[in-house]
User: What shape does this take?
Amino acid sequence: MPRVTVLVPVYNGASHLGATLTSLLAQTYKDFELLVIDDGSTDNSVKIIKSFSDPRIRVMQQENVGLCSTLNRGIQEARGEYIARSDQDDISFPHRLDREMTVADTYPEALGMFAYNTKIGEKHSWTNSDKLTPTNCVRVYDPIKDGCLLGSTMLARTSALREIGGFRERYYPVDDWDLECRLAEKGQVLVICELLVAYRFHRDASTYRVFSEMQQKRYWTKDSHRRRVQNLPELSFEEFLAQLPGNIRARLQRRRLGLWKLHTRIAGQHLLDGNYLKAAVNLTAASFLHPIDISKRIRRMLLRERIPVTTSGETSVESGTSPQEAPH
Assistant: This one.
């Protein structure tokens, strides 16, 4: 049996699917199966998948049931000891699995891990300055401080994902953060402070269609995590919304923060695509909504130091260093 199952859920992903699969098949780590589950695509996705003849590819097709159910089917069908997830439009660097499996073998008690990512658009790529670490490290994941990390960087024990029940549909579209929280509650989850995946920004991403719901459920996910840690029962989404402050000021504050995040996201999209005028419009709107944050972002963009980043995967955790002691 392969040691790793690389799980790729697909739904109408023809635009970028070929590049994603190519990056996964080019991994320097070879002991894996590539489980691709097509969730009822109506474009050329299946044709693209079947154009690859690599024997490591295992293809499943089904009627459309949604992302969470597709991922959960993959968790049950996986043959590997570990599951590495990749979305249909992201690019894994060649050493990604090698690096993650090295960390998995170094910390066998860990249930899973995530890594940093760069962002790519039609014309440019970008890495946040706080991810340009001069010294690579491995540290413990904190659900509140770290927030939701990119699902396409995940490597986790198959048994642990099954034990916690996989992805929960009711938390979609922040089901990935909900899973990360529950995995961290179950045992040790690590963060590899290296760029292992390129996260693709594109206008067809589902993020824009569900952005408003995403913001509400982000607060709910955080509340549910804190309740579980305190051994309190979770609230349903409706119960959570009902207990939020209902005064006009509180509602306007939540609305302001949601719009600020949306305009910031769209501005980043335009910058990566080379649409600088459109980016300036959204950045201006974001600056009215949250001037302090935007001024900090612009200052970092203009003045950040170019720190050399290791992407070869050659740097490893220092001998005798535990994740808790590794530099943040």
About this structure: Residues 305-322, 324-328 have pLDDT under 50 and may be disordered. Strands lie at 4-10, 32-39, 57-62, 82-85, 91-92, 112-120, 125-126, 138-140, 155-157, 189-200. The longest helix spans residues 248-273.
